[in-house]
Amino acid sequence: MTQGHATTADFGRHGSGILPSHVLERLVADGREVLFAEPPAPGQIQPASIDLRLGAKAWRVRASFLPGPEATVAERLPSVFMHEVDLTCGAVLETGCVYIVPLLESAALSPGICGAANPKSSTGRIDVFVRLITDRAATFDRVAAGYHGPLFAEISPRTFPVLVRKGSRLNQLRLRQGAPSSSDTALKELHLRSPLTDVAAIIDGGLALSIDLKGDAVNGRIGWRAKRHTGLIDVDKPGALDPHQFWDPILADPEGRLVLDPDEFYILASRERVAIPMTHAAEMEPFNPLVGEFRVHYAGFFDPGFGLELGKPPSARAVLEVRSREVPFILEHGQVIGRLLFEQLTDPPPAAYGQGIGSNYQRQGLKLSKHFGEPR
Predict the structure, then answer these.
(1) Nearest to 191, CA basis, from 202, 180, 178
(2) Residue 201, exposed/middle/buried by CB under 10 A (0-12, 13-18, 19+)?
(3) According to the 3-state scheme, what is the secondary structure of 153-177?
(4) For the chain, what is the domain count?
(5) How far apart are CA 247 and CA 373, in angstroms?
């Protein structure tokens, strides 16, 4: 069937929702929706998303930008271009700099299919700011329904310099058929069928997540604060680094509080353990800045099966990348810091998050990115 004759049945049994892995694999094999300049890498298609790969070059630019509805990225690039970086053999992206990288994947979306992108978990946890850009885009991290054209990553390391190369995977793309549909009533019914959290669920515009500042009873650790002026992180080498060279541990305060220092980067964890049913995917909603002078720094995708174990309560905490703003801010144990928004898949995927597909964070507690070994 050609793309011009696509029907909703091509995308799963439900008329709308997030496209799962087996549908994505079939579409990619047919040369539809997402086009690959090179064959897909093992594990590139996740239960409800596609990892996007860096191309062979990066452009250092003097400022972040969006092309706007009347221009392409190529047309806007000369006004901000500084120099080109060859990624074929690897290159260092420096902190505080902004880079634009053409991706190996491009879009050829059907009229009823749109896309949303997020940094991968391992990218957010090392404070690398990554956003997707398309031609004629007015917003980051969105691919308009029916868009045909190239995809670009805007990359800005905030704390650690990183080594990347052609094929590195820093962000991911979800495809959606139709308009998103969710409600608190439907989410409460889903929670009754398949518990979403191991504590009483607060459902108000999504599933509320609160902060854990009591920590591990064994070591008292509640989080990590990033060090400045560290060594290099190779984004493609898991388990290679000593966490204590890059992070200072944070121990629990007897009063259950934590003062966030301005412009420091923290890894913290949710008080709740969560589970994502196989019928749904979730996304962390960026923190509402009206509630406090900090934010959960990167919204994130949660795949179907995350924290889900048959016959057991939800098993995985949400790991939170947190940064204060201009002033110190006090967090209290149990304070709500974000919400999970759930959306149905057009079909359940054949494999859950963590089932033989290279997932790094199933059953996680307070956990640094995959690049670091176990802390002492």
Answers:
(1) 202
(2) middle
(3) EEEEECCCCEEECCCCEEEEEEEEE
(4) 2
(5) 12
| CA dihedral of 216, 222, 228, 233, whole degrees rounded to 10 | 50
157 C-beta neighbours (distance < 10 Å), count: 24
Instruction: Report the first-to-last Cα separation within the chain, whole angstroms.
Output: 55
Residue of 203, 169, 212, 156 lying closest to 55 (CA atoms): 169
Amino acid at 277: P
Give the residue from 152, 177, 202 where a domain finishes.
177
**For position 68, which CATH number holds?**
2.70.40.10
Q: For the chain, 376 residues long, give each residue's pLDDT as a single digit of tens.
A: 344 445 556 787 888 999 999 999 999 999 999 999 999 999 999 999 999 999 999 999 999 999 999 999 999 999 999 999 999 999 999 999 999 999 999 999 999 999 999 999 999 999 999 999 999 999 999 999 999 999 999 999 999 999 999 999 999 999 999 887 788 999 999 999 999 999 999 999 999 999 999 987 678 899 999 999 999 999 999 998 999 999 999 999 999 999 999 989 999 999 999 999 999 999 988 666 555 556 665 668 999 999 998 889 998 999 999 988 788 889 999 998 889 999 999 999 998 766 554 455 555 678 999 999 999 8
Same domain for 149 and 239? no
Q: Residue 92: which domain range?
A: 3-177
> Torsion angle, CA of 108/350/209/132, rounded to 10 degrees?
-20
Domain's final residue, options 126, 152, 177: 177
Q: How far apart are CA 272 and CA 315, in angstroms?
A: 9
52 and 153 fall within a common domain: yes
User: What is the residue type of 188?
Assistant: K
